[in-house]
Please model this.
Amino acid sequence: MRIALVMDDMPVRSNGTSSTALRYADALREQGHEVICVAFGADGPDSFDVPEHHIPVVTPVAEGLDFHFAQPDEAVFDEAFADVDVIHIFLPFALGQAARDWGRAHGVPVTAAFRLQPENVTYNANLGAAPLVCDAIYRLFRDWLYGDIRHIHCPSQMIANQLRKHGYRSQLHVISDGVPKAFCPGEGEGFNDGLVHIVTVGRLSHEKDQATIIRAIDRCSHRDQIRLHICGKGPLKHGLEHEGSRLPHPPIFEYRSIDDLIALERACPLYIHASIADIEAMSVLEALACGCVPIIAEAEMSAPSQFALCRESLFEAGDDERLAELIDWWLDHPEKIAEWSPRYAAEGMGDHVEKCAERFAAMLEEAIADDLSAYGEEVRS
Model:
C-alpha cells in the first residue's frame, strides 16, 4: 500500500502522537509499504511540510505546551496524496479535516486515529476532569472529523469504550502503539551513589500528576535512600522542582534520548505512573520491557492500570499515602522485585511495534475496501 500519514506537529518527539506516527512509518516501510508524512515541520524522505496554523489566543497556549497546529495546503495535498491508497489522520484539527475533505473529493479512502483525550485538554486548561466539558469535546471532535470516518484506530480499549459511550458509531480498532524492540532487559546505567533510583516518564502537566509521586517519596521510610528521575518536558517543571526540593535527594528532571532512557530504566527497579488521564501510556510498557516493576495509578480515564499483574502494582490516583506504602513494600522485599521483573518484562515486550503495525495495516486494508465500496468503486487489486 501507499499510505499517507497526516499529523499536525511532526518534529515534537516528546508527545505520543508524533512518536507513534514516526515509529509506525518506519515499521510499515520495513514491511514493504510506501509511507509519506504530511505535517508542520515534516522533514526527510517522502515528507511534505505545511505551514503553521496560527489561531488567536489558542496558538500561544499550544506553543507553551510545545505543540503547533498545521495549516492545510491544497497544493501540498495534490502532490502528497497523488496515487496514495489511503489517508490516515492523527488529529481532528484543520489539517486533518482538510485532508479528509480532499480524500472524499478525490475518492481516496480515509481513516483516523483517536489520540487526543478530552481530559488532556481540560487538565491543561486548568479545568480538572470537567466531565461536562469533556462530553462537549467528544461531540466537537465527532462533528469535526470522526463522524465521517468509517474506521478509527484506538490505542486502548478504554478510549474505545469512551467513544462508544459518546455516540461514535464507526468501526473501532483497538491496536496498541507498540514497543520498539530496543526496549528490553540488559545492562543499565551505573550508579555509584548507594541510592535506589526510581523513574517516571511523561509530560510535566497536571494530568500526569508527578506531584503525587514526590509527596509519596517524602512519606516513605526509605526517603533517605531514594533518587527520583522525572523524564519529560512541560509547563509544570518549575513547580515540581520546588516541590521536590524538600526531598533529601531532590528529583532529577531530564529529557533523554531513547538509548539513554533505556539505560536508565534498566537500572531502576521501580517505575511509577501516577497519571489521571492517559489513552495508553506507552512509557509504561517501555519501562516494563526494560525490566522495571511498575506502580500504576488507577483512574477511570487512564488506561495503563491494565498492565498491572499484581495488586502491589496499583494505587488509587492521587493517593500519595498508599503509593508511599507500596514503594516501601517493594523496597523492603527485593526478592519480590527479582520475581516480578521478568514477568513484567515479558508483558512489556508482548506487543512490539512491528506486530502492531501489521494489525494497523490490516485495518487500513479493510477501510480501503469499505470506503471504495461506498465511493462506488472497485477495490484495487
The longest helix spans residues 353-375. The radius of gyration is 21 Å. The chain has two domains: 2-178+352-375, 196-348.
